[in-house]
Write a structure and sequence with these properties.
Layout lengths: L14 H13 L4 H20 L9 H9 L7 H20 L26 H9 L6 H16 L3 H5 L6 E2 L4 E5 L5 E5 L2 H19 L18 H14 L8 H14 L4 H8 L4 H4 L1 H17 L6
Length: 307
């Protein structure tokens, strides 16, 4: 017989966890990736409770607290906070569905997380990356269109690689994308992005297709859908060509998009809508970046600020 430490994850699964994950998938429409994350966190809780001869449904306040004192509380603050969110969601669901009478996670306190500012490129650094892209050729046209959309529309990497040709309205200057939680939003597209995408669609994309048909907007050299990994490679490649020593990802361009808009005077609510944030609180982190930029300008230029 296998020991408890050697039991497979399936052995510690709990019926109420399965029920909750089905709810998230079929009622809330969460992605398979998100469901897998919840599964991992909640299976760990179920395994811990099993060691205390408890099911998820039978857990008490002390059981859940003990889990976060032990294995559940290990790791970075952000990891622990994510586990707590999964556990709170589970027990909140069980209370609403009258599977349990009281919520054993009600007294959990989420650990405070350090508020790190996102990495942001300067306008000059963005221009350097764009300048590193070959000005012609099917792949050069594609890559120029990709980076103009990343920076010009603030798209997430997953949103960009999921774009279909019909999602881009070049005449109206709009991009339709599907964000987190399958929420659709429409983002305005500037003239540089529209020109780059239009040129790619008319010429480079047609060549990459080699006479085939495809809905996806961005294609790889084989004429199939560009993957997230392929996009990551392109970002690293052009960041190196531009001479940038810092770590740069597709999300860095999204951060830069938001920060540059706010620095130039855009209102927070408009930037929230363009980014597709559910809460304006998420967008507010970029105001800290903008304020820090203003502080640097002040210290560098004001005669009474110089040391």
């Amino acid at each position: 017989m296998a020991s408890e430490a050697g039991e497979s994850r399936n052995d510690v699964r709990d019926a109420r966890v399965d029920e909750y994950l089905d709810y998230l998938q079929f009622e809330r429409g969460m992605s398979p990736h998100t469901i897998a994350g919840y599964r991992n966190d909640l299976d760990r809780l179920a395994g811990f409770l099993r060691g205390r001869e408890r099911s998820v449904e039978a857990a008490r306040d002390g059981d859940v607290e003990a889990y976060f004192v032990a294995a559940g509380g290990q790791g970075a603050a952000s990891t622990v906070a994510r586990r707590m969110a999964a556990v709170r969601g589970l027990y909140g669901y069980l209370v609403r569905e009258e599977r349990i009478a009281a919520d054993p996670a009600v007294y959990l306190h989420t650990p405070k997380q350090p508020q790190g500012l996102p990495d942001v490129l300067s306008i000059e650094e963005v221009e350097a990356v764009l300048g590193a892209i070959p000005p012609s050729g099917d792949l050069g046209q594609r890559d120029r269109a990709i980076f103009e959309l990343l920076y010009g529309c603030g798209l997430r990497a997953s949103e960009l690689v999921s774009l279909r040709e019909g999602d881009v309205d070049l005449e109206a200057g709009l991009v339709r994308c599907i964000g987190k939680g399958d929420k659709e939003r429409v983002v305005p597209m500037g003239s540089h992005a529209a020109t780059a995408v239009g040129r790619y669609v008319r010429d480079g994309r047609r060549k990459l297709l080699h006479g085939r048909r495809a809905d996806e907007l961005f294609l790889n050299a084989r004429g199939t859908r560009l993957t997230r990994q392929g996009l990551d490679y392109l970002v690293r490649r052009y960041a190196r060509k531009a001479g940038l020593a810092k770590h740069v990802s597709a999300h860095t361009f999204r951060h830069s998009f938001a920060t540059h808009l706010l620095t130039a005077g855009a209102d927070l609510r408009s930037v929230q809508e363009m980014l597709g944030h559910a809460s304006v609180a998420t967008t507010q982190i970029y105001t800290h970046v903008s304020v820090e930029h203003l502080r640097e300008v002040f210290l560098a230029t004001h005669p009474r600020a110089r040391r």
